[in-house]
């Protein structure tokens, strides 16, 4: 089973990355069954790593001081994955279980017989709750499928980190969408998979991952939150119905009031309020042009 893994770093030393350390442990544990792994370390930090050595797999290190985000890293990896069957997407702060590689091999035995499956995703846990994958309901609502294992025919979405994506599928659709530099790239990817009649296999593997949105006051700056909201709005504009966009606007109004009431840092709330009025203005301008 040929896999190209791409690990994206930002302002973190490789040796300090939980993803890197747990990946090596998993590779060693599954080595007797594992044919080959190529690793791309794509570093979006302002300064390059001081040294990278003693990596037991074939490795390419790329430093991108312009910080092209996840999409630049993934598209670079796609170009390097011409002879690889799968791409493994990894953030820097994910903890992979020791049996992760072994489960990938076992899952491949099932998925190789079903050409409709173009992604294998693990369960991702944050603060003891399984947050990914989730079934996509109307107007962007998410339904937990924490206990599900196997091929999922109804649309789901999942976190990028830990996801295996068929290289041939990504080549077929022309790579990762540059509209989504960082945020909502995962939503776009899984929307694309199901819109083209393909499916996703949910693995039994459980990863630990820290989501920045899980703690607004500690993890998110106003600038970062603004980027998340902008990506979310782009996604709704491009892929949701008018009714769903309307519900999204109402939900944002409620969300702004809630954030203002419970979040101590009012700068975050003000970002959401400003975003709400920008969305209203954008919708008004679009209607005027018709």
Automatic annotation (TrEMBL):
UniProt GO MF annotations: glycosyltransferase activity
Domain called Glycosyltransferase 2-like: residue spans: 34-107
Pathway linked to the protein: Cell wall biogenesis; cell wall polysaccharide biosynthesis
Keywords attached to this entry: Glycosyltransferase, Transferase
A Pfam family annotated for this UniProt entry: Glycos_transf_2
InterPro entries: Glyco_trans_2-like, Nucleotide-diphossugar_trans
UniProt keyword Membrane, yes or no: no
Family statement: Belongs to the glycosyltransferase 2 family.
Name of the protein described by the UniProt record: Glycosyl transferase family 2
